[in-house]
Amino acid sequence: MIVEPRYRDWKGDWRDVNPDTLKLVRGLVDEHPENEATYDVAQASPPYARRCVVPGERLLGLAVQVYSLWSEAGAGIGDLADVEELARASGADFLLLSPLHAPLPGEPQEPSPYFPSSRQYRNPLHLRVDGVRLPNDPAVRIDRDAVARAKFAALETEFAAFTGDPAFDRYCSEQGDDLKNYAFFVDPSRVQFHQWVQWRIDAQLRAAAAAGSGLIHDIAVGFDPAGADASMWRDLLAPGMH
Fold it and tell me: Residue 222: which of 121, 113, 124, 144 has the closest Cα?
């Protein structure tokens, strides 16, 4: 690995890395400026966490804020169908996605994907729902509350006509109590509906992952202390800590 001592800022101008930062980075990885291919991770001495695995070839990736993807078929916010379309059209080796975590239910919808209710399950706003049409204008602030109202209204109608599917049964069985507890937290009177919504999201995410670009999912560091994960894991948390 070669550690570059310079970087381009947001204007495109070259900047020198702070010497202390450069020293820190070089202390965490092995530099092999002459021949990167000679690096054998199997021979790296412990601790392995201090070693950086170098791929055999350069790969092209795109960092994608999913909510900011815009398309004519979308509904006021970027969704997983947009991710699939980008994966097919971009030719990128991978897409680094902003967190898809589920926010707290209700209004106002949490705008930051880094303060989720649950990191185990995903945001229904990123589900492409047929028939939902809201203005798609990248110059306009995303109205997450309007998106949530429109999509859940359409999903309620779809679910009312849902007569079952073996794939849904398998998904619920595989997810077990985690999914059931999450759905209960969101709305104890509509557990199966919220299980079904997560199954739909999972299917669209799998389709995006099969579209030609690998997917890397950014993960929030923590979660809302009033959210689903905190409720499920309350015995493992230290109250009042930030």
Answer: 113
